């Protein structure tokens, strides 16, 4: 059976929690690395777990394949008083993301890239670089048996593409890092 991101994320019943140790650690890391950003894209915002880190940023947009979580994210943004646009990619194809080059100061991909199929991961990461000046990634490391999660060697991908990884941090089974093109 082939993993279909669009189908999976639009039928998954239980969104992840906003209140846990992982979320707190994500928020602290993100907050340190978005200073000075005026335009930010949350790539795969889901229910809006990371939105509280974006207060004070003039333009915040979420880009997701899930229609299911939109209402949760918009409710969370409203509670925070955060102007937030939630754009849905209905095609499920993330190998092209429809924004201008370097449109965003920062793109945040928090626990999203592990869901990209191996044949698409480089295309998706290239798109994130194309549309932003800096990308912040928080993702799981290691082997997984879940049909909707994939293990990617981010060090090797960035090295092969000539991208510079920085601010690398580990937390339990996760890796946090920023990457940028030349």
Q: Could you please describe the fold and organization of this structure?
A:
- With 182 residues, this protein is of the alpha/beta class.
- The chain has a single domain (5-180), classed as Rossmann fold (3-Layer(aba) Sandwich).
- The chain contains 5 helices and 7 strands.
- The chain has helices spanning 5-11, 21-33, 70-80, 121-131, 154-161; strands spanning 39-43, 59-64, 85-88, 104-110, 132-140, 164-171, 174-180.
- A hairpin with a 2-residue loop joins strand 6 and strand 7.
- The protein is globular and about 40 Å long.
What's a quick, concise take on this entry?
The protein is of the alpha/beta class and 182 residues long. The chain has helices spanning 5-11, 21-33, 70-80, 121-131, 154-161, and strands at residues 39-43, 59-64, 85-88, 104-110, 132-140, 164-171, 174-180.
Mean pLDDT: 87
Q: Would you state the CATH class?
A: Alpha Beta
Could you say which structural class the secondary elements and strand pairing correspond to? alpha/beta
End-to-end Cα distance: 38 Å
CATH T-level topology: Rossmann fold
Q: What's the name of the CATH homologous superfamily? A: Vaccinia Virus protein VP39
Low-confidence runs (pLDDT<50, min 5 residues)?
none
CATH architecture: 3-Layer(aba) Sandwich
Keywords for this entry:
182 residues; alpha/beta; Rossmann fold; seven-stranded mixed beta sheet; 5 helices; 27% helix; globular
Write the layout of secondary structure elements.
Blueprint: H1 5-11, H2 21-33, E1 39-43, E2 59-64, H3 70-80, E3 85-88, E4 104-110, H4 121-131, E5 132-140, H5 154-161, E6 164-171, E7 174-180
Parallel strand pairs: 1-2, 1-4, 2-3, 4-5
Antiparallel strand pairs: 5-7, 6-7
